[in-house]
Write a structure and sequence with these properties.
about 75% helix, about 5% strand, two-stranded parallel sheet, mainly alpha, about 160 residues, 2 helices, rod-shaped
Length: about 160
Amino acid sequence: MEPNETSGHDKKLQDDLKDSAHRIWLAGLGALAAAEQEGVKVFNRLVDRGRDVESRGKVDFKDQVEQAKAKVEEAKVKVGDTVDSWSGKLDEAVTSTLHRLGVPTREEIRTLTLRVEELNAKVEHLRPRVTPADSVIVTPATATAEPTDPSKIVV
C-alpha cells in the first residue's frame, strides 16, 4: 500500500466519523427540542388534570361536609326525641309515686284552695253581725253566789 492510499482512506474514515458525530449531535439537539416542545404540552396536560382533581376534591369535600351536617342534625333530632321520651317517662313515674304516697297534685291543691276560699266566704256571710255585750271577768274576788248571765262570763 502506498502512503497516499492510507492517508486517503484515513481521511475518509475521519470524515465519516466526523459526519456520524455531527449527526449524533444533531439527533441529540432534535431530541432536546422535541422534549422541550412535548414537555410543555405534557406539563399543560398535567396542570389541566390537576385542576380537575382539585375541583372534584372540593366538590367531594363539600359533599362530605353536607353529609356530616345532615348526620349531626339527624342525631340532634334523635337525642331530642330520646330526651322527650325519657322526660315523659320520668314525669309519669314521679307522678305515680307521689299519688301512691298520697301527695296531692298541683291541680288538686288549686281545687282545694278554691274550695276553702269559697267555704270561708260562706262562713263569713253566715256569721251574725252582733256586737258583743259587756263581758264580766270572773275572779275569786268578783265571784258571788248569785247566778251570772252565762253570756257575760269570760274565762
